[in-house]
Amino acid sequence: MKSEEVDKQASAPVSQETEEVSLDFPTPIRQDPVIEKLLKKLPPSLAGSYSDEQLQGMRVALGDRTWGTHFIDSRGTFAFPFVPWRFYYVFLLGKNRRAYTRREKHASMLMFIGLVLSFILISVLLGILTLYILKSALGIDLLEGTSLGVWDWVRELFD
Question: Which of 10, 113, 123, 158 is least surrounded, with the fewest CB atoms within 10 Å of its CB?
């Protein structure tokens, strides 16, 4: 009996009332910043010809790409003489606002650790070199008859 009721409801005519959309007032998709920017770049006749459904599809296709401003945004083109092609360059610099993947987080942490360890290593080596030059300048000889030649090289620079 329940299946008969379901069949009757399924075969019942569905009201096909549609609501006319007025283009006098912007709809929410037309207020979207990405879609607004896209529509401003098109001729008005073409921009007005898209339906809201088409604009929704374009918004989904474009994704979360917001063309924001960058601290440094340098773009240009150049050509070499006697070469039939033109080349372009883009240099962008700004704060990274996107979320990192696990792999990017791992690579970032490894790079940070590598940079910190490199800084520490270079600082220690420069410290040892400075102490060695200071020791040699004061005439302290820890191992009789041995020299790395660094003190002689430094003296030659200033003589």
Answer: 158
- DSSP conformational letter for 75: E
Reduced to 3 states (helix: H, G, I; strand: E, B; else coil), residue 56 is: helix
Distance CA 103, CA 106 (A): 5
31-57 pLDDT per residue, tens: 888 888 888 999 999 988 999 899 888
> Cα separation of 150 and 21, whole Å?
84
pTM here is 0.41
Which secondary-structure segment (H or E) carries 35? Answer: helix 33-40
Angle between helices 102-137 and 150-158 (to 10 degrees): 70
**Three-class SS state of 8:** helix
Question: What parts of the chain have a pLDDT lower than 70?
Answer: 1-27, 64-68
pLDDT at 127: 97
